[in-house]
Amino acid sequence: VSLLVGPATDQIDRVTLLSAVVLSGAIPSLLMSYFVPSSKAGFFYFFLARICTGIAIGGSFPILFSLSADLFPASQRTFVATSISAATNVGAAVGGMLSGLLGPKYGWRVPFRFVG
Known about the structure:
Layout: H1 2-8, H2 14-35, H3 40-71, H4 74-106, H5 109-115
Helix pairs in contact: 1-3, 2-3, 2-5, 3-4, 4-5
């Protein structure tokens, strides 16, 4: 996905492209929390929604690094790129903890509504 989105960052407005990529991951998560049945067939839709989320995450990195190169001087780019990478790991850790807290108490769909 990064190989497709990367060249597009030079041709399409980066903020618009980032918004589209983020929405392509958030909307399936939100829809999944409302419409996926709790059955064997529901696993297929859950799997498709998670694929869309993964594609969105993979597509966001080239855009984020390109935006950071545009917005920050060369002396700060290393720090900004490191911060973007660290924020990804922190977000995954916080998301896992929130899912562990919200999921058992309110059901498996609530963390996906929260993210969506």
